[in-house]
Design brief:
CATH topology: L-fuculose-1-phosphate Aldolase
CATH architecture: 3-Layer(aba) Sandwich
CATH class: Alpha Beta
Largest sheet: 7 strands, mixed
Oligomer: single chain
Number of helices: 8
Order of helices and strands: HHEEEHEHEHEEHHH
């Protein structure tokens, strides 16, 4: 059995702000594990490190999400240089996707990318997301699309990905999966959860006989305006994530190491 290496002295070496960011991100990896939003050792959640430099935290390549802890998260710069002690490398594909957004979108403090079955299935549909269910109706004019160019390991794709994203918070990577970015971890999570839930319902609908019932565009727009999921008055997603982290803490709080 492999040993998950950690640096017990890291908390003393980094700022309190960085340590709190590490705790929040590590807890979120455990939330993803609890929800089943995992793909072996692949996919990523990244979070900017507080401070003047555009450094961010990413999962160690080789660990599953339930092995991620505050101290074994890897701090890197936009070029992928490892800035913290780590026994693990980082995934080049994760670097390309996440560094692109962290570098160019000022308030993209957290970026999440998944390959859930429902999300990937909708990403493979020519029409993409249908506005035919309660969750999709909360995402009016919030979703962009990016054409699949193969495994994301080439710098040349970065400007095209940014152009596809535009000013949207959500990106459906065609034939690939889902992506969100937010002003906080909770914000990015609420966005991704809502999109993934919409995809789950769409997948279920398409498994049944008959046609889906579209929602009128004016009702979709109104539903998005009325949604509390991303409203700062109700935590902008942080209250949702906090509730799930409390569940994680009841199961296994080793992410705090």
């Amino acid at each position: 059995m492999s040993t998950v290496l950690e640096s017990p002295s890291l908390q003393r070496q980094c700022s309190d702000a960085e340590w709190q960011a590490r705790l929040r991100l590590a807890a979120t990896y455990r939330v993803f594990h609890m929800l089943g939003w995992t793909e072996l050792i692949f996919n990523h959640i990244t979070l900017r490190v507080p401070g003047p430099d555009k450094h961010f935290l990413i999962n160690p390549f080789g660990l599953t999400y339930d092995e991620v802890t505050a101290s074994n998260l890897v701090k890197i710069d936009l070029a992928g240089n490892i800035l913290s002690e780590s026994a693990y490398p980082i995934n080049p594909a994760g670097l390309i996707v996440h560094s692109t957004i962290h570098e160019s979108v000022d308030d993209a403090h957290c970026v999440m990318h998944t390959h859930t079955t429902a999300g990937l299935a909708v990403a493979c549909m020519a029409d993409g997301l249908e506005y035919s269910n309660f969750y999709a109706a909360q995402l009016h004019d919030m979703v962009a699309y990016h054409t699949f160019e193969g495994i994301t390991v080439h710098d040349a794709e970065k400007p095209r990905m940014l152009a596809s994203l535009g000013d949207k918070r959500l990106l459906i990577l065609r034939n690939h999966g889902l992506l969100s970015h937010g002003a906080s971890v909770g914000h990015a999570f609420a966005l991704l959860w809502t999109l993934n839930r919409a995809c789950e319902i769409q997948l279920a609908c398409h498994s049944m006989r008959g046609q889906t019932l579209p929602i009128a565009s004016n009702i979709v727009a109104q539903s998005t305006r009325d949604s509390l999921q991303f409203d700062p008055r109700f935590g902008a997603g942080d209250a949702i994530l906090d509730a799930l982290i409390r569940q994680v803490d009841k199961i296994d709080d080793s992410y705090r190491q």
